[in-house]
Amino acid sequence: MKSSERTQWLLRNVARLRRSQQRHRHDPDLAAIRVDLELELGETVSRRAAARFLGVSHAALDRWIDRGDIPLVPTPNGRTQVPVGALLVLRERVEEKRVHGDRRRHHLEAVLKEDHERAERMRPERYVPNEDGSFGHQRAERRGLAYHRVVAARLTGNLVDDARQRALRWIREGRLDHRYGERWLELLSEPIPVIKEAIVEDSRRGRDLRQSSPFAGALTGRERRRLLEAVG
Questions:
Q1: What's this model's pTM, rounded to 2 decimal places?
Q2: Pick among 1.10.1660.10, 3.40.50.1440, 3.10.129.10, 1.10.357.10: CATH of 3-120
Q3: Which of 104, 108, 103, 97 is nearest to 67 (CA)?
């Protein structure tokens, strides 16, 4: 199997597992299989692979990237690629529109327009902590707290599932200390109200958790930029 075909096969199967996990939450076998596939796939794919997976032209994808609607992240080899997490969410939302009978031809354009409008409606100043000079409220911590306040406000089971999966993968890769990994996995097995409270807790525990947060990618690029501008 060619490398490009293998990438598409991995993307399709990770997407299938993600959907299965939404129906069978906390299934350790599904989580373990998905981690294995994600480790082979990697956290990013090329623009060409992303365009093919989304069913759009390379030119269209570049246009949305240039507008800031689809994110790019740097890779260790100096390239910029599309994060797999964002790609899976976009593909799933496009499929939902098709399943629910949305007759528009350009489903991805409609999804990205929704994201743009939500970012414009966002009031980032509501989430920014006061700059009172107290310990833990330096700029990086204020950004982390503001980010997680937004996450808490819109937390869903799917976001929790993705965070749990990311924590499992980071532990396997050695990118997340087992102590913090176990704390996160324990927290992410709690009811959503408990998770909401913990990720915005203004305490040493809350700060430690946010420094190794698996909720990366929960906001769109536009939303993150608006939030960072509000923090300063």
A1: 0.84
A2: 1.10.1660.10
A3: 108
